[in-house]
Structures are given as structure tokens and as C-alpha cells.
Amino acid sequence: MSERARIAALHLAVIALLFAAQFVLPAYHHGIVSRVMVLAVFAIGYNLVFGYAGMLSLGHAMFFAAGMYGAGLPVYHGGWGIGPAFLFGIACGAVLAAGIGLLALRTSGVAFMIVTMMFGQVAYLLALWFGDWTRGEEGLTIAQDLRVVGPLDLTDPTTRYFVALALFSAALLASLALVRSRFGRTLVAIRENEERTRMLGYDTFRTKLAALTVSGALCAAAGAAYALLFGYMGAGFANVPYSILPLLWVLVGGAATVIGPFVGTLAMFYLTDLSNDLLNRNFPDWDISALGIVGLALVLLILFFPKGVMGTVRARWLPWLP
Amino acid sequence: MAALAGTSNAPLLSTRGLSRSFGGLKAVDGVDFDLPAGEIRAVIGPNGAGKTTFVSLVSGRIAPTAGRIVFDGTDVTRLPAHRRVGLGIAYTFQITSIYAALSVADNVALAAQRSAGGAALKRAVDEALTRVGLRDRASELAGNLAYGHQRLLEVAMGLALKPRLLILDEPTQGLSDAEIDGFVQLVREIAKGATVMLIEHNMAVVMALADRITVMDQGRVIAEGAPDAIRADPAVQAAYLGAPQEAASHG
Ligand SMILES: Nc1ncnc2c1ncn2[C@@H]1O[C@H](COP(=O)(O)OP(=O)(O)OP(=O)(O)O)[C@@H](O)[C@H]1O
Ligand SMILES: [Mg+2]
């Protein structure tokens, strides 16, 4: 099998596996996997900027939230249809990312982390400020009868699963095509040596801006889908934890691998779930939050497992893994 | 390389009053410089003379504090570096700057893929690597190459850009004597299709290759001329050749 065919087969197999899982998963896990697929799209978007282009953003929650509110608010307040609302949510994320990029990409390294974090905080505070529309942390629930597109009832678990799978598959294959294109190779070149890349004739600023915009659109698609599929939007999704989580998911799964974001999201979802249960059962009055586990996982990862799952698989066994 | 013909009076590159300061230090100080197409020009001078800074201004890697740069009739002073590469100015770094984590072939492909794709890209990579003699190592990680070979990879990346002006900043640093002989041959080859600006401390290489020599000291051009005239110039001897231990310690 040629390398190209091997790569295509591997990624299509992941999609096929998820398709088959729908028919065998018990209800509880069925729900989790739906959620994980949507959030994995968030991680895929983050991976493009962090993994491939090497820019550590600490404000990506704002793009997820832009999609969430961009899609959810028009449905809730304006009675928009699901389709246009979804597209509008994506557009909000892309435009926001391009705007932020024009400013934040004047910096790099630690300054970029701080600038994106500040913008992220501004977005969170705006979500609170417009509490009349968003109801802040408490959030809004989108009524069941609004979440219907034609014959599709997004509140039905099976429909939800397949819509999530469709979105995830599109994002996965798009990111696969992107990172294997000239554009993707240029992103890696920028990550490895930006000065050299500039002196090879690449407009590195524009390339990074394009990457951030695509990333913003993907993260917003995840946010929009989350609001429309699960019927809830709240300012919590714009807050710091949701900027850290995609970083964690990507690190666990393997930065700069196409499947890594999904693997990491899935692993962390079950890990927090399990450890939450365990901790609550054994230390009922300690009130340990999932956030503590996230922090601990991050530290352990960076110390002992810097390549993540798929990064390690690539280093050990499959050097051709994109 | 259409510009090579019939432009003998209009230089390919010229600078006027080109200056760059770092804080109070005038690293490049009012340089007027003309380079006709097709020439091999060596730029020499003691450590810290401003040679790297000067060619960095020409390539757009850093911005000047004053002065003008004209390349092939176009004022490029305000043009960003990547646009200058598009016009045909290629710079190879004095401090080796390669993609250590990528393969040798991928390094060159990044340089060549601006103008070629698919099979043509593969051919362009092959050709550039063959010219510098690194074709056998195409699949090795660039970071694993010996230092001298990394220098040659730099040159291959410059070649893959298909430049009209190739700027080589101390390319022979770290090469063995045998490799230096090969390198002199290579530059002669390159010069058939491009104008070459060569910063070099190894005087044997300079004398073997240069049509003309520009001597810099403390940010200024202190002499310019044919190799023999430069060798005899007392100001040059005082600034540079008169301090052979310095030149030797570098080469
Ligand atoms: N980025 C910088 N910031 C501050 N000073 C600099 C910078 N780059 C160069 N300089 C200073 O400018 C002067 C000229 O440096 P440059 O590197 O151009 O010299 P050079 O002729 O290339 O020397 P060498 O032969 O050692 O490579 C030196 O005094 C150097 O310390
Ligand atoms: Mg220098």
C-alpha cells in the first residue's frame, strides 16, 4: 500500500469505527462519545495552531464561545433556523480569529500567550457583561422544538450522534488534507524555524494569520454544534478552563498528529469522569474539582509524556503518521 | 537570467547611504555599493566590521535606519524579506539556520516548493542536493549532519530558491580543505547563472573566486577593487590583512 493510501485508510478506519460504535455503545457512553466528537473538533482546531504552527494560544475558549453564542443566540432570541445559525456561528469564530490574529500575531512566544489570554478574558467578561442576552454563567437552554432541522431532531440521541460524527469526520479529513498540503508544510516550517522560513520567501505573518483563522472557524464550528446539539450555552465555556482544556487534549493525544486531538479528548473525558467518581466516593468532603485533575495531568504529561499518545506511536512505530 | 545580458551599465544591486545602528553602535554606516550582474563579489573585513549586517539589510532580514536599496531597478528598501526572495535575492545564514528536525530533502523542498510542485519539486530538490554533493544524505535528519554538511545544506537551500543574487555569509566556515576545494568549484558553477556576494574570511577562497573585493571596517567601505589592488592597498592591510592572526583564527 502506498503511504498515501495507508494514511487515508487509517483515518477512514477511525471514522468507520465510530460509526459502528453507535450501534453497540450503552446509552451513557453513547452520550459521552457524542460530546467527545464535538469537543474533538475544538481540539483539532487548536492543534492546527499549537501543534503544527507552534503558537501557544491561551485564549481559544473565545473562538469556541464565539461559535456557541454566534449560533445559539440567533436561535434563542431571533428564531433563526439551525442551518443558518450554525454557519453564522462559524463565521463569527473565523472573523474574531482573524481580528485577534492581526493584533496578537505581532507578538510571539510568551507575549503571544499573554495577549491571547487577555483577549480571552475580555471575551469572557463580554459574555457576562451582556448578561441580559446571555444570562452569564447560568446560561441559556435552547428549547427542544427549536432544535429541529427538516426531518432531523437534534435532541434525539441517535441523530445527535450521527450529526456529531459527520462534523467530526469533516474536521478530521479537512485537517488531514490541510497538514499534508503546501500550507501545512509551511506551518511546520514556521514552527521549526520562523526566521529561516521568512528568508525562504514565505510571508510568515499571513500564513500564521490564515492558520489562526481556520483554527478559529473549526473551534467555532465545535462551539456552534455544542450549543445546537446539547441545547445549552453558558459563559463558562468562554472562561479560562476552556482555553486550557484543548491544550491538554492535544498534549495527551499528541500535538501535531491528526488523530491525536480525538484520542486526547476521549482519554481525558474518561479520566476526569473516573477520577471524579473515585475521589467523590473516597473523599466525599474534600470537594476536589475536575480542574485540579486537569492541572495535575498537564504537569505529569509535560514531565513524563511530552509526545502524547499518537506522538509516541509515531516516534516508535509509524514514522509516516501525519 | 535575462538580466545578465545587456545590463552591464545598470548594476543588479546598488545601495546609497545604507545605514543601520544598534543603540549607539553604527554597525553599517552610510554604505554606497554597486554590484554589476554576473560578478562574484567578495566582502571582507575584520570581525564586527558590519558585513553580516550589511547583507542582512540587502536581504531584508533587518530594516535599515537610513539609506536606499535598489535591486534590478526596483527600490526594495521597504519591501519585506519574503518579497525580496521573490525578486531573486537569496541569503544563506552565517549562523547555520536549517530545520534540524526535518530531513535534508524536506529542508531543500521548503526552499523549492515556492516555484515547483509534484515531480518538478522532486527534481529541483535532487538537483540542488547533487550540486552541493549531499544527495546521498537526502533522507537523513538535517540536525544529524556534520557541521560542514549543514553549511552545504544552507547553500543547497539558497540554490533551490533559483536566485539572481546569492548571498553567502561565510559558507566555508567549518569545511575541510577538500570540501573547500569542492566549494570553490561549486561557486564558479553557480556564478554562471547568478550574481554572487560572498562574505569570507578565508583569503585563499576570496582570491580564487572574487572578481572584485569590497573591504569593510567599522561599518564603512574602506576599499574596493580587483583582488591584486586590494592586496596592495595600505588601508586594507592596516585594517584587515595587517592582522593575519585574526583572519587565521577565524578560518
Ligand atoms: N542584532 C544586533 N544587536 C546589537 N548589535 C549587533 C546586532 N547585530 C550586529 N551587531 C553589532 O554590529 C557590529 C557588526 O556586526 P556584524 O555581525 O555585521 O559584523 P561582521 O562583519 O559580520 O562580523 P563577523 O566577521 O564576526 O561575522 C558588531 O559590533 C556587532 O556586535
Ligand atoms: Mg558576520
So what's the CATH class of chain B? Alpha Beta
Averaged pLDDT of chain A:
93
At the fold tier of CATH, the topology name of chain B is: Rossmann fold
Low-confidence stretches of chain B: 1-7, 244-251
**Main sheet record of chain B:** 6 strands, mixed
The biggest sheet of chain A amounts to: 2 strands, antiparallel
- Label the overall shape of chain A: globular
Percentage of residues in strands of chain B: 15-25%
Compounds present? adenosine-5'-triphosphate, magnesium ion
Write a structural description.
- The complex is a heterodimer of chains A (322) and B (251).
- Chain A has 14 helices and four strands.
- Chain A is mostly helical and 322 residues long.
- Chain A has one domain (3-240).
- In chain A, a hairpin with a 2-residue loop joins strand 2 and strand 3 (152-153).
- Chain A is globular and about 55 Å long.
- Chain A starts with a helix and ends in a 6-residue tail after the last helix.
- With 251 residues, chain B is an alpha/beta fold.
- Helices cover 39% and strands 24% of the residues of chain B.
- Chain A binds chain B through residues 182, 185-186, 188-189, 192-193, 195-204, and chain B through 59, 61, 80-82, 85-86, 91, 93, 97-102, 106, 109-111, 113-114, 117, 157, 161.
- Bound molecules: adenosine-5'-triphosphate and magnesium ion.
- Residues 22, 25, 27, 45, 47-53, 94 of chain B line the site of adenosine-5'-triphosphate.
